[in-house]
Amino acid sequence: AQSVTQLDSHVSVSEGTPVLLRCNYSSSYSPSLFWYVQHPNKGLQLLLKYTSAATLVKGINGFEAEFKKSETSFHLTKPSAHMSDAAEYFCVVSDNAGGTSYGKLTFGQGTILTVHP
Amino acid sequence: KAGVTQTPRYLIKTRGQQVTLSCSPISGHRSVSWYQQTPGQGLQFLFEYFSETQRNKGNFPGRFSGRQFSNSRSEMNVSTLELGDSALYLCASKGGGSRTEAFFGQGTRLTVV
After folding, report:
1. What average pLDDT does the structure give for chain A?
2. pLDDT tens for residues A42-68?
3. Integer Cα distance of B1 and B92 in angstroms
C-alpha cells in the first residue's frame, strides 16, 4: 500500500524568499515520486520526478526536491519565490510493484502556496 | 505532439441522470487513468485501463465505470448521478517503460443539480 502526507495545507511566503513544501510518503515497493502543480481551473503539470536515479532532483521553474529514504521524505524547495508560483502543489507516489510501473497514482492532500509581493 | 484531450470541459446534469466523459491520451500511450478531484476528498483514483483492460480500480461504487477502445481513447460513465458526484474529473495518460510520469488533461467539470 502507498500513501502520501503533505505536512502543510497552506504555505505563505514573500516574493524573493525561499519556498519549502513538505512531503512524507509510505510505499511497499521501490516508489517513484512526483511533484505536480495545479493553477486555478487547470489540469496538473509535472514539476519534477524521482525514479531511483539521483536523489536530488531538479525540475522546471527552479524547483528541486531531495529524496531521503531514511526519512521517507520528498520535500520540494525553491530558492526564490515568484508571484507566478502561487498555485496548489501535489506530492504524488507511484508503486513499482515487481518492476512494473502501474498507472495508479496516490496524491497528497495538496499545499496551497501563496506568494505576497 | 498533442497533449491529453478531455471532452467536454464543462457539464451540468440533473440527479438521477447518467453521464459519459471522454479522454484521448497522448499518441502512443496505452495507459489511461481517471481521477476525481473534490475540495473535501482531494484527488482520488478511479480506475486505470491498459490495452483495453481495466488494470486497477479505486474504491468507488459500481455506478462509476469505464472502458478503453483499441485506439487507447477512454470513456468514463457515471450512472444515477448524485449531488456528491459534482467534481473535476481528470484523465491521465502514461507511456510505456517503468517509472514514467503521467500527463494530465484539463479535466471535465461536472456539476450535478
Report:
1. 91
2. 889 999 999 877 889 999 999 999 999
3. 15
Instruction: Tell me the residue type at B57.
Output: K
Contact: B35, A51; criterion CB under 8 Å: no
List B residues 39-98 in contact with A (Cβ-Cβ < 8 A).
42-45, 48, 50, 55-56, 58, 90, 92, 94, 97-98
Cα–Cα distances in angstroms (integers) from residue A55 to residues A18, A62, A63, A91, B77, in the given order: 20, 16, 14, 16, 40
> Where do we find the cell 496548489?
A88
Q: How far apart (Å, rounded) are the C-alpha atoms in residues B31 and A111?
A: 27
What chain A residue is nearest to B43 in terms of C-alpha separation? A107
User: Cell digits for A6?
Assistant: 503533505
Residues 6+ apart with CB under 8 A from B58: A104, B44, B45, B46, B47
Distance from the first to the final alpha carbon of chain A = 41
Residues B72-95 have pLDDT tens digits of: 999 999 999 999 999 999 999 998
- How close A2 comes to chain B (CA, Å)? 12
